[in-house]
Design brief:
The chain has 559 residues and is of the alpha+beta class. It has three domains: 196 residues, no CATH class; 110 residues; 206 residues, Pseudouridine synthase. Helices cover 37% and strands 19% of the residues. β2 and β3 form a beta hairpin. α2 runs antiparallel to α4, α3 packs antiparallel against α4 and α6 packs parallel to α7. The two termini are 53 Å apart.
Length: 559
């Protein structure tokens, strides 16, 4: 489809300032022009009638409810006119192409393309495998093998039990014969008992060998039939792998210098990893690809979720989200190369100019009040952290120092140990649930109930670290008690009592639809960015590691 996807703004943008730099796509506040473009796209999604897709927004709508990530890219054409491009991630309404949306980087659904032809070949192999697996002879042989295995187990068990009983009987007979028989009679009896023992031993051995041979013969017949199936499966595996590699080679991504790299170059050759499923199908690379192909200058990008939230991830209808890291970060590193871009905020020290307040201290422990946006331990790019500050302040302290962590964005109380022994003692208290923590948060919405519990297992989102997913199959148990303190102006002030301490536990339990379904105010990962994350560790209770005295330390939140 060679349609023009450049969209003119419906309303005047004369009062808008053009972005000076392209925004960092993995952490950003949407530019006002992107917000306007997204608003116009959302309006068209609401009223359009050219295609049908169930976003889960209309009750009783046909089809499986699936929300979608959309993207807008504000661009300037060669005539200097400002407009925008629109894209969706993956497929929409079951297709890759829809009017006014940029096309995919590579269309694997093209009817005459190699992928469709490869699919046909693999489908034919699958049909042959299925036909061979459903042959009457093979099914009958497998059934016979199952039946004969059951028979052999019964017969072997019976003959072994008979041998065990015979052995016990002979033992008793020998003992009584030693008392009742003379020497010659006892000698004759022992010879007979020996013969009987040998006979039973060979009976067990013969039975075992009989069934071993019989079952082996049936298995050999099955293997004869399955040999062709296994050869076809190996052929399918090789063709599938070759087809996948061919797909990787056909996903070619441009940058503004018109330099091209495909998925194999980006992932397997550069990062020595296999491209994840769906790589290149997100909105961001689609938008940039179209812009570079048509000599449009990218000015700013934003992505938003439209529709029902998925079961595992937290996606709120209408909210803006950064590009995903697992699939998009390596691709966009190439596509954005050489562009005048905002600095990566994750390379800026968030703790610069901030101090750690000491709330309690003795010769064994320290309790500090950590400000928001301050790392607990050194990060991948930033060294400055609570650990580093404590190391500088207490150079004689031994051991790991940090007893437990707070998310970088969370403020509040942290326990610091000054010796290895104290650290072990406090760690044991955490493991044994002796330590009790209390948080206060401000939620973006009204919670109707007064108190409750949330139990949603969590695991890391492997394709979008550090985000966490709710996962009932592989997630670790995460348990939170909560209590409402106040409701005001569409927000809820709440106390959290985490029983477990999973990464982002309170943030996910707040925002997820199966939790409180209200993100914490300022949550830039699971809600809407603000001046800070309104989550604070306000109290901690533990036993002093030396005196065993009950310690309760509190510090009020600044919000």
């Amino acid at each position: 489809m060679n349609q023009n996807c450049f969209t003119h703004f419906k309303e005047s943008i004369d009062s808008f300032k053009l972005p000076v730099k392209f925004n960092f796509p993995f952490y950003y506040t949407p530019d006002p022009l992107c917000v306007l473009a997204a608003k116009e796209l959302q309006e068209s999604l609401t009223i359009q009638t050219l295609w049908k897709h169930n976003f889960g927004l209309i009750e009783d709508q046909e089809g499986l409810a699936i929300g979608k990530m959309f993207g807008v890219l504000v661009v300037q054409n060669r005539e200097g006119v400002i407009g925008y491009l629109s894209a969706f991630s993956g497929k929409l309404a079951g297709v890759n192409h829809l009017p006014n949306f940029v096309p995919p980087v590579f269309d694997i659904l093209e009817e005459t393309g190699f992928f469709r032809q490869g699919e046909i070949i693999i489908s034919e192999i699958n049909s042959r495998i299925e036909a061979l697996e459903n042959r009457v002879e093979l099914i009958d042989l497998k059934k016979l093998l199952t039946e004969e295995k059951a028979k052999s187990a019964i017969e072997l068990n019976e003959i072994k039990q008979k041998a065990r009983n015979g052995k016990e009987g002979r033992k008793e007979l020998r003992q009584s014969a030693k008392v009742s028989l003379n020497e010659s009679e006892l000698a004759l009896l022992l010879i007979e008992l020996g013969k009987e023992s040998v006979q039973q031993h060979y009976a067990v051995k013969d039975c075992t060998n009989f069934w071993k041979d019989k079952l082996a013969n049936i298995s050999a017949e099955i293997e004869f039939f399955e040999k062709e199936i296994n050869l076809l499966k190996e052929e399918r595996k090789q063709k599938s792998s070759a087809l996948q590699n061919q797909i990787f080679e056909h996903y070619n991504f441009l940058n503004q210098q018109k330099a091209t790299k495909n998925l194999t170059d980006i992932f397997q050759r550069n990062l020595e990893i296999k491209p994840p499923a769906g790589a290149g199908e997100c909105a961001a690379p689609k938008l940039l690809q179209y812009a570079f192909l048509h000599d449009l200058k990218p000015l700013s990008i934003a992505e938003f979720w439209w529709g029902q939230s998925p079961d595992s991830e937290i996606r709120k209808h209408g909210n803006f989200y950064p590009a995903c890291r697992g699939k998009c970060e390596p691709i966009l590193a190439h596509m954005l190369q050489g562009m005048n871009m905002d600095e990566n905020p994750m390379l800026t020290n968030p703790a610069f100019g901030k101090e750690l307040e000491t709330i309690f201290e003795d010769e064994y422990i320290v309790v500090i009040n950590k400000p928001a946006e301050f790392l607990s331990v050194p990060g991948k790019n930033i060294q400055d952290s609570v650990y580093d500050r404590m190391k500088l302040k207490y150079p004689e302290a031994k051991g790991p120092l940090i007893v437990h962590r707070l998310d970088m964005s969370t403020s509040g109380l942290m326990l610091i140990s000054k010796t290895k022994e104290v650290h072990k003692t406090l760690q044991r208290q955490f493991l044994n649930r002796v330590v009790k923590k209390q948080y206060v948060a401000l939620l973006d919405g009204i919670i109707e109930e007064e108190e409750g519990v949330i139990e949603l297992p969590l695991r890391v989102d492997l394709e979008n670290r550090p985000q966490q997913l709710v996962c009932f199959e592989h997630g670790k148990r995460a348990y939170t008690k909560w209590k409402v303190l106040k409701r005001l102006n569409g927000q809820t002030r709440i106390q959290f009592f985490p029983i477990t301490g999973r990464t982002h536990q309170l943030r996910v339990h707040s925002a997820h639809s199966l939790g409180l379904n209200c993100a914490i105010v300022g949550d830039d990962l699971y809600g809407v960015k603000a001046n800070r994350l309104y989550l604070h560790a306000e109290a901690i209770e533990f036993l002093h590691p030396i005196t065993k005295e009950k310690m309760v330390v509190r510090v009020e939140a600044e919000f």
